[in-house]
Amino acid sequence: MIAESALGSTYHHHFRLAILARILPQIVAAKLALTVRRFHDTGKSGWNFLIRFIPVIGGIWYLVLVSTNGEYGSNKYGLDPKRPVDNEIDDIGVAEV
């Protein structure tokens, strides 16, 4: 009976690790994509994400970069998502003549 409970808990532990191994890369990829998009909103390169790996000051500077307002208007990475130039939702279903 003791052996069964030990084997059962090992099975559940491996099962949880397997689930985590499948989900964690997806979470990391989504966070990276959102962070790069945020840096592009501020007009900075996505490579600024690597700043956070500098001990102590990197985490603080990363927080400052992520917290700043984006650039007003479009920049080299695209249009401003908060202030669209034209409302493309009004153009859906309208044929250009």
Protein described:
The chain is mostly helical. It has two helices and no strands. It has helices at residues 2-41, 57-67. The model has no long low-confidence stretch (mean pLDDT 79).
Order of helices and strands: HH
Taking the sheet with the most strands, its summary is: none
Low-confidence stretches are none
| SS element count, helices | 2
Topology:
Layout: H1 2-41, H2 57-67
Which features does this protein show?
mainly alpha; single chain
Structure summary:
The protein is 53% helix and 0% strand. With 97 residues, the chain is mainly alpha-helical.
